[in-house]
Design a protein that fits this description.
Elements: H1 9-27, H2 29-48, H3 50-59, H4 61-64, E1 69-75, H5 78-90, E2 94-100, E3 108-114, H6 118-123, E4 127-133, H7 141-153, H8 159-171, H9 176-188, H10 200-209, H11 211-217, E5 226-229, H12 234-240, E6 264-269, E7 273-276, E8 286-289, E9 293-298, H13 304-321, H14 330-340, H15 348-353, E10 359-363, H16 365-369, H17 378-383, E11 387-391, H18 399-410, H19 424-431, H20 438-456
Helix pairs in contact: 1-2, 1-9, 2-3, 5-19, 8-9, 10-11, 13-14
The chain binds 2-oxoadipic acid and nickel (II) ion.
Nickel (II) ion binds next to β1 and β5.
Length: 459
């Protein structure tokens, strides 16, 4: 018998990301508005800044820009998380990084499912920030038991999705037709439900413990709560949001505006209040807010040393502010951030020299035309003009920023202080595997690009 031909997991991910975006655009019209604003701004930036256009063209990022987005979901049990890991694996997505949100008063810990190799990221950089509720943080034992039993009764995957995951694992892939069905079935897990699985009173009890607990426990599945397009200039989009009927959060999370963007800058708009029917109601008389909009601007991935400097400067600025950033202190916060981040070199060359960021290297036309170079150190090749570099894009998330995004949707009343701390081991046990260290991935990408340059130069 002939071996069936399997479709690449990267293409399944690309299709899934598109299907998810179409579903979300249909359900949350403001997401469509935001997408248009981002597209318009990106076009403006590309027209007015030839250097950015050149840079995006030379790295190929220009082709992924319109496709690029991340989403987020929250699940309630180890089994749900472990099965999600298998579902995402069918699309070539692995759990990268561990994020502990408890220091910010959010009772979850998280990872990001994404592609890990630069060629796969190029086909589709779709990522899903995935949080697991930490039920052990519900103090009231009765409420905890109730939440647990509600979660144990639900199945967040369709029977066909489960069967296709098993088939992909057994066969080593999916055929074209199976992939189409998989995308359709997998999408169901992330759909919004207009009815809850608990009574109005039970919802109130869960919500009083923490709004996030109600969001995870009271529904049939882990509805996608936002999809985030990538903009080339987040300050422009932030400034233009109000004119488009969107109210952004008070401050942009992440590093301040710079010549050479690093890591990730993000802003969001508040979650919408949506009508919900509880089990003791015939029609949707209640409401729940979970779904919101967010935009992001991605910059260079930082080395461990660069990341340590980023964390240090961010903490110093926040300490000096003395409070969470909010409407009242937003201007002061931006000032403090700009001030503290003066200590972070703002040229690519400066960041490379101090080993603060990861880069991709390219052989120049000059090198192709010339004889074999004399020196063979990266230094020598760069200064001879035989190599050129572009920063590697940061593909991950930032815990302090993520906390800010969570908080902006929970309201200030949700500020809780948990006595417990990160528990990566428990998270990985629930996940059924370990998470991948993102810094390792960037180091490998950088190494591969240098190896290829050396091979091209015959060194
Ligand atoms: C996730 C919030 C974090 C980000 O981009 O950092 C996040 C959530 O609200 O579930 O999406
Ligand atoms: Ni997000």
């Amino acid at each position: 018998m002939n071996q069936p031909t399997f479709i690449s997991p990267d293409l399944i991910r690309q299709r899934f990301s598109r299907a998810m975006s179409d579903m979300y655009r249909e359900e949350v019209p403001l997401y469509g508005t935001l997408m248009e604003l981002v597209e318009q701004t990106n076009r403006q930036v590309l027209d007015s800044d030839p250097q950015i256009a050149r840079q995006l063209r030379s790295t190929g990022e220009i082709e992924r820009l319109d496709l690029e987005r991340h989403g987020a979901i929250r699940v309630g049990t180890a089994e749900e998380l472990a099965t999600l890991a298998r579902l995402f694996a069918v699309m070539g997505m692995q759990p990268v990084g561990y994020y502990d949100l408890t220091p910010a008063g959010v009772p979850v810990h998280s990872t990001a499912f994404r592609a890990v190799h630069e060629t796969a990221l190029q086909v589709s950089p779709f990522r899903v920030f995935t949080s697991l509720l930490r039920l052990e943080l519900i103090e009231n034992p009765e409420l905890r038991a109730f939440a647990q039993s509600v979660l144990e009764q639900r199945t967040i995957f369709t029977a066909s999705a489960l069967a296709l995951i098993e088939r992909a694992e057994a066969q080593g892939g999916l055929t074209e037709q199976e992939a189409d069905e998989f995308v359709e079935q997998a999408l169901e897990t992330f759909r919004w439900h207009h009815s809850a699985t608990v009574t109005a009173a039970q919802y109130q009890q869960l919500s009083a413990q923490h709004r996030l607990i109600a969001d995870v426990v009271a529904f049939k599945g882990p509805h996608i709560n936002h999809l985030t397009p990538r903009t080339l200039d987040i300050d422009i989009v932030q400034a233009q949001m109000p004119a488009h009927g969107i109210t952004p959060k008070a401050v942009i999370e992440g590093p301040p505006r710079r010549q050479c963007p690093i890591l990730l800058r993000q802003t969001s708009f508040k979650a919408l209040d949506e009508p919900i029917a509880f089990t003791d109601q015939a029609d949707p008389r209640g409401s729940h807010s979970a779904r919101f909009g967010e935009i992001e601007q991605r910059g260079a991935a930082l080395t461990p040393k660069g990341r340590a400097l980023y964390d240090q400067l961010l903490n110093a600025a926040r300490d000096e502010l003395g409070d969470f950033p909010n409407e009242g202190n937003a201007a002061r916060y931006n000032e403090l951030m700009t001030l503290h981040f003066k200590a972070f070199p703002d040229t690519w060359e400066g960041m490379r020299e101090q080993e603060l960021a990861f880069f991709r290297y390219f052989v120049t036309e000059k090198a192709v035309a010339a004889a074999k170079p004399e020196g063979s150190s990266v230094e020598a090749l760069l200064s001879a003009g035989y190599l050129r570099m572009e920063p590697l894009v940061y593909e991950d998330f930032l815990p302090v920023s993520a906390a800010g995004i969570f908080q902006s949707n929970l309201g200030d009343a949700a500020q809780t202080h948990y006595g417990v701390h990160s528990n990566q081991q428990a998270f990985e046990q629930a996940l059924g595997r370990s998470t991948i260290d993102e810094l390792q991935l960037y180091a490998e990408s950088q190494r591969r690009s240098l190896e290829q340059c050396f091979a091209e130069l015959g060194l």
